[in-house]
Amino acid sequence: MKIELLSTFIEVSQTLHVRIAADNLYLTQAAVSSRIKQLEDELGVLLFDRSQKRLKLTAEGYKLVKHANEMLMMWQKVKQDVGIAQGSSHQLFVGAMMSIWDIVLQEWLQKIHRNLDDVHLFTHTFSPLELRKQLLTRLIDIAFLFEPPHVEDIVAEKVASVPLQLVSTDAEASLDTIENMVMVDYGESVNSQFMRDFGDNTAIRHNMSQPRIALNFIMEATGCAYLPKQMCFQHVRKKKLYLVENAPEYHRDIYAIYLNKSDKTSLIKDALMLFPFIRG
């Protein structure tokens, strides 16, 4: 099976549109359709339901998405190991939860680009369970999550402690007058603190898994939420959001994990030193 067939399938599975996928891949629509048909013939299944105006993944297509991503990542690792990777002498495969990308990793990637100019970055987003699996199978070199696993072969280092502030779109909001509270899932430790402090006294209007989603929501619909200080700093400064006075402040620790016998330990440590928390 050719790698370009899988990469084309992934692009179509994300766009669900042959023309858009063709534009993104700099191919003709006929070439994209041909690759998908070839892949379906090799597997002996239909990957897309073409009965409607918009493509839909079949059950088999959904199954292939996960395997295709892993195979493409493995191919990048193979290129690295046999020395045919182009344009860089070092590659670093980074995985993280979606919310952690939003909170601290965007700036970190920029620092790597500026300070470690011989490093070629590959970034991926996974659930905490998948991050551990991808790390142990060496498909990624370093992962970022809120609660590190206690596994003998894995090194965990705290890279950030993120302040979470209660902010509101209402300049007059107080703890006694909170309305439209959006609760963001920051993990069990923060969630339990929140429930102890607020309990039944505050009606939760919505529950959301990502701080970025909660921020965009309250900016549009009005309301309040606990958000990372880094994420809402500019909005507070421009008086689009307001700190709720006397509200408890929480912290969400973020950890980097990597294999203790990784052949990239030196590179990983150099990259982690770009976090202010690590430098002290």
TrEMBL record:
Keywords: DNA-binding, Transcription, Transcription regulation. The keyword DNA-binding applies. One of its GO terms (molecular function) is DNA-binding transcription factor activity. It holds the Pfam family LysR_substrate. Residues 1-58 form the HTH lysR-type domain. Belongs to the LysR transcriptional regulatory family. This is LysR family transcriptional regulator. It comes from Thalassotalea marina. The lineage of its organism: Bacteria, Pseudomonadati, Pseudomonadota, Gammaproteobacteria, Alteromonadales.
